[in-house]
Amino acid sequence: MAKPAQRVIIATALIQSSVNTRRHRRQERNPIVLDIIDADFTNPAHGDMVVALLDEYARGPMGGGQPLSDYARANLAAELARRPAAGALVALQDGVPAGLAIYFEGFSTFACKPLLNLHDLMVSERFRGRGIARQLLAALDERAARRGCCKITLEVLQGNEPAKALYRKIGYQGYELAGDAGQAMFWQKKLAA
Predict the structure, then answer these.
(1) What's CA 45's distance to the chain center, in Å?
(2) CB proximity list for 58: less than 8 A, separation 6 or greater
(3) Residue 34 CB neighbour total at 10 angstroms
(4) Among 1, 50, 86, 169, which has the highest number of CB atoms less than 10 A from its own CB?
């Protein structure tokens, strides 16, 4: 039998677990209110936010575990500004950058309509679990609808189960033309610089 002090600790742990579970459910029902802005790559403050968030993402396990190169940090905003098909959404929580979605407009030849490709989606570690990714994706849906896009595409790492669960929950699925041909795979060929 547990000693009285142990029972208090166990009971406290159970209560805290219950409170955390209720708090998590409440956060899912009532996501935090964010400002989601369309980044202006020519605005130095916006460029700094995009670079800082993308660098945090790159340093994490789903971004490869390496920081952005000095070249990328110095030139990313300007290079994105040169590309009219590029866009980014920045989620701000009380003015603090909390999440990022970088996207590019493409074109579906089969549908003969534009599409958006979500190239990078990240939520800063200290802001995770608050529904920010969902809100960024909803804002991306709005941008795609305004442009008359037929779909939004994205790539997700096979082992990124939390992201895959979110994407499925809001309507994304693996891309395939015909079931017997299988799902599309994302391939790359690196070119010499």
Answers:
(1) 20
(2) 64, 66, 67, 68
(3) 20
(4) 50
Token pair 């200290």 is found at: 126
Question: What is residue 155's three-state secondary structure?
Answer: coil
H/E segment holding residue 97:
strand 96-108
Query: Judging by beta carbons within 10 Å of its beta carbon (0-12, 13-18, 19+), is residue 186 exposed, middle or buried?
Result: exposed
Distance CA 2, CA 84 (A): 67
The continuous run of DSSP H or E covering 140 comes out as: helix 132-146
| 8-state DSSP, 125 | G
169 Cα distance to chain centroid: 14
Vertex 145: Cα angle to 144 and 146 (nearest 5): 90
Q: What is the mean pLDDT of each run of 10 residues along the chain (193 residues)?
A: 38 42 50 87 98 98 96 98 98 97 97 98 96 97 98 94 96 86 86 86
Residue 15 in contact with residue 22, Cβ under 8 Å? no
**Residue that is written with structure tokens 């939004």 in the block:** 152
Q: Which of 175, 171, 186 is nearest to 140 (CA)?
A: 171
What structural domains does the chain harbor?
A: 30-170 (3.40.630.30)
Nearest to 151 by CA among 96, 111, 182, 191: 111
